[in-house]
Amino acid sequence: GAGVSQTPSNKVTEKGKYVELRCDPISGHTALYWYRQSLGQGPEFLIYFQGTGAADDSGLPNDRFFAVRPEGSVSTLKIQRTERGDSAVYLCASRPTGGAGNEQFFGPGTRLTVL
Amino acid sequence: DQQVKQNSPSLSVQEGRISILNCDYTNSMFDYFLWYKKYPAEGPTFLISISSIKDKNEDGRFTVFLNKSAKHLSLHIVPSQPGDSAVYFCAARQGGSEKLVFGKGTKLTVNP
């Protein structure tokens, strides 16, 4: 079956612009996560959705970052007034809640470059 | 303040030999640990995991060992293959939380 997909694969924008990053989780997965990976670092947690609601948004760095999952499947990460420090690979992951394992399945990521 | 530490940025081994990747953690509330493998331009791929109630979990060529008293875990790959060359991330989860805390990764190179 299809894995987690993310679009676009690459996004280049200018400082101050608004961007949206999309994540399509594995069909039937109720849990969805966003992480950010900067160069030379491991993925860093941003937000976790259970169904349509954000169950944990403690990793969002500031109020310029916002994420939605209106129908409990596709999610969009929105970044306002982008800054050069937002440049990173944004990873999405999903997991079937109640499954035997605890592993999260990651997509290929969106590489965001803010000029 | 890094809660999960992978102190070796890189490791190089010969094909057929054992690869040992290490990970240390500071948060005693972590109850589940995972290893992910990442190839360039791809997302992390789950490899193997271990619950804090166990000290060893094995899956084919991959074995993870957990030493809770030392807050240390390791991933053993035997025998190592060139296709194992990738960045390996250690991750941990605290009970009651869904978020994974990752180390910085170790780049493994397996030479033919």
Structural features:
heterodimer; A: 115 residues; mainly beta; seven-stranded mixed sheet; four-stranded antiparallel sheet; 0% helix; B: 112 residues; six-stranded mixed sheet; five-stranded antiparallel sheet; 11 strands; 57% strand; globular
Low-pLDDT regions of chain A:
none
Largest sheet composition of chain A? 7 strands, mixed
Q: What is the N-to-C order of secondary-structure elements of chain A (H for helix, E for strand)?
A: EEEEEEEEEEE
Secondary structural class of chain A: mainly beta
The value of Rg of chain A in angstroms is 13 Å
Basic shape of chain A: globular
What does the average pLDDT of chain B come to?
96
Strand segment tally of chain A:
11
Find the count of extended strands of chain B (DSSP E, 2+ residues): 11
Question: Strand fraction band of chain A?
Answer: over 45%
Major β-sheet annotation of chain B: 6 strands, mixed
In terms of quaternary structure, the protein is heterodimer
Give the N-terminus to C-terminus distance of chain A in angstroms. 37 Å
Query: pLDDT below 50 for ≥5 consecutive residues: which ranges of chain B?
Result: none
Order of helices and strands of chain B: EEEEEEEEEEE
* Computed CA radius of gyration of chain B, to the nearest angstrom: 13 Å
